[in-house]
Amino acid sequence: MSLSGKTAIITGSNSGIGLGIARSLAEAGADVVLNSFTDSTEDHELAAGLGREFGVNARYIKADMSKQAECRALVEQAGACDILVNNAGIQHVAPIEDFPVEKWDAIIAINLSSAFHTTAAALPMMRKAGWGRVVNIASAHGLTASPYKAAYIAAKHGIVGLSKTTALETAEEPITCNAICPGYVLTPLVEAQIPDTMKKYDMGRDEVIRKVMLDRQPSKEFATVEQIGGTTVFLCSAAADQITGTTISIDGGWTAL
Length: 257
Ligand code: NAD
Description:
By secondary structure, the protein is of the alpha/beta class. It has 2 domains: 212 residues, Rossmann fold, CATH 3.40.50.720; 37 residues. The chain is built from 9 helices and 7 strands. Strands 3-2-1-4-5-6-7 form a 7-stranded parallel β-sheet, sandwiched between helices. The site of nicotinamide-adenine-dinucleotide has 27 residues, from helix 1, helix 4 and helix 6.
């Protein structure tokens, strides 16, 4: 399928899942807007590289997804938004009574509120263009819980709810909104959790991956960024025209347990 002529904005896309989705959308022919809060030379080179590799227009726009004005400015600055992928996300692990308030606020802002602001800015553009796709990257933790991840789980359940509301508000238009719910994917966000988990359980890396991280992922394999990118491209295809307001799990059976 070709997404040629469509512009996709992917929040938090200078690494991990967001970058994987940007690659898949560019491979399918979409012009892509990469984003993070860093604005480094590497960020701009990453976008230029995607443009060269796939022959599409690829840009990097700096915007801090913890700030509502910057979320909305990202969409305005892009100038077009046919496909919006709300992917930016951070994690913090602590019991509720010790959970730092500033971490709670940051996670709710970046993992949930940013999607509200970008969607609010993007819907008028999609309506004007007569077509649109909103893909929210939730998590298996948008459907189930684990201890010590209060803010992340609240935000991910929230983004599943936001996806349903967005779908209902656009149901009679050629616009869809869905949430993808990945299980564990080996990205920098997950990699960063491995050393502490090794210490906590006094286990080696492989044991932590298999017995702790993939404990609830029955396939015992990480999901990949390519699988999430491919699912995003599918949600942008005509085959998905009537798929809206739902969740698609890519979790090796986690939520079937
Ligand atoms: P990652 O750390 O590799 O990427 C996170 C991205 O968000 C980066 O591009 C980072 O620059 C960006 N980001 C962070 N704070 C930002 C801010 N204030 N403004 C703009 N951008 C910001 O992590 P990832 O694993 O690729 O996670 C991407 C998304 O997928 C997150 O929403 C995460 O919750 C979700 N997810 C990840 C997994 C997993 O196992 N890795 C599983 C389920 C869901």
